[in-house]
Amino acid sequence: MSESATKPEPPEPPESCPMTRAQVVDAYFMEHRARLLDVAAFLDRIDRAGPGVDDFRMSAYRSAMTVLGDGQPQRARRILELLSDPSKSPIASAHTKGATGAHDPSGKAH
Amino acid sequence: MYIDPHVHMVSRSTDDYVHMARAGCVAITEPAFWAGYDRSSPQGFFDYFRQLTDSEPRRAAQYGIRHHTWLCINPKEAEDPIFAREVIALIPDFLKKQNVLGIGEIGLNKNSRNEMEILEAHLQLASDHNLLVLVHTPHLEDKLKGTLLILDAIRRFPKLDPGRVLIDHVEEHTAKHVLDRGFWCGMTLYPDTKCTPQRAVDIIETYGSERIWMNSAGDWGHSDPIAVPKAQMEMRRRGHLESLVRQVTFTNPERFLSQSGRFSAEPLRPTAPDITR
């Protein structure tokens, strides 16, 4: 059997974004300028709320913000991975139905 | 024209049906879901399954929308395996109903051992009856781990063809895992906790348009039952071809769901309300 006959079908090539770089900026800049200011105002609000320490969610949030500026691709995927539970096995039992949005290394969020 | 292949209409108003119909919705599928509280008896599920297979299709038909459903006990209520198995035992009788497409939305919520036991019981039922499967993946920080556990669990049922299983609620960190194993994947368009229409279109641009659909998963929480047409608008805004818009919002769901032999997206003339009920 030839090598080509044993290889699976190649995946369908992804659809690319039909917009140019400038068109993407034109279309989305104002929307994401507003979201950037929302993030800044959220952090300011935490500071104004008084002294304290970050819980596991805010620790993860601040780590995720460093991904935004690292210049590497696939930022959304990498931030989602950073916020994810890295364990592999099922937990013994569920004590809540909800999720917090970030992995709690202490395990208390389960 | 579009199909919303995952929406919980028992939680929505008749106004939502009007808005969806006006936006071009011709068919929906409604997976069994958690009601926002734990039901106190299997009889509660019996009545819910009657609602999904009898009254909700008639309500949808008044707006010219074809209604189909999936049955299960949702993973959020799977932490009590004895209770869950009593509910699963109700399902085979309902499989005879013509709008039932398969088992769903099964899966994991907090990735517990009991949830896994009940997921496997559902997979066995689907395997035994050669049914389509619609899988819920966990929320937020639990999604990546849960998705990988689910994909491994399905692999333990060799009679389940990945081409007949849809893994729902994928995001940027799970879509490739699902597609690489030959499954279908669904993107849920939520205002906060899953994909925005913009991110869903980004995922299509990154991973392609084969074996992928979009849904609103509209329910009793913060959600948007006309999210799919909003994603269509986003695709058009970027200049995607109309054929691609149709593929991911109509042709793809129709192709997957038609494997049940019971799905139809043919135009439906709105029926008169049944005032005797």
Question: Mind sketching the topology for me?
Answer:
The complex is a heterodimer of chains A (110) and B (277).
Chain A: H1 3-6, H2 21-48, H3 56-68, H4 75-82
Helix pairs in contact in A: 3-4
Chain B: E1 2-4, H1 14-22, E2 25-31, H2 42-61, E3 66-71, H3 81-88, H4 91-94, E4 100-107, H5 113-129, E5 132-136, H6 143-155, E6 165-167, H7 175-180, E7 184-188, H8 197-207, E8 212-215, H9 227-238, H10 242-257
Parallel strand pairs in B: 1-2, 2-3, 3-4, 4-5, 5-6, 6-7, 7-8
Helix pairs in contact in B: 2-3, 3-5, 8-9, 9-10
On the 0 to 100 scale, the average pLDDT of chain A is 88
Named CATH architecture of chain B:
Alpha-Beta Barrel
Q: Radius of gyration of chain A, rounded?
A: 21 Å
How much helix, percentage-wise, in residues of chain A?
A: 40-55%
Q: Which CATH C-level class of chain B is it?
A: Alpha Beta
Shape of chain A: extended
Descriptive overview:
The complex is a heterodimer of chains A (110) and B (277). By secondary structure, chain A is mostly helical. Helices cover 48% and strands 0% of the residues of chain A. Chain B is an alpha/beta fold and 277 residues long. Chain B has a single domain (2-260), classed as TIM Barrel. Chain B has helices spanning 14-22, 42-61, 81-88, 91-94, 113-129, 143-155, 175-180, 197-207, 227-238, 242-257; strands at 2-4, 25-31, 66-71, 100-107, 132-136, 165-167, 184-188, 212-215. In chain B, helix 1 links the parallel strand 1 (2-4) and strand 2. The longest helix of chain B is centred in the N-terminal third of the chain and has 20 residues, at 42-61. The A-B interface holds A 11-19, 27-28, 74, 76-77, 80-81, 83-88, 90-94, 96-104, 109-110 and B 34, 76, 79, 109-116, 138-145, 148-149, 171-173, 179, 193, 198-199, 202, 204-210, 237-240, 244.
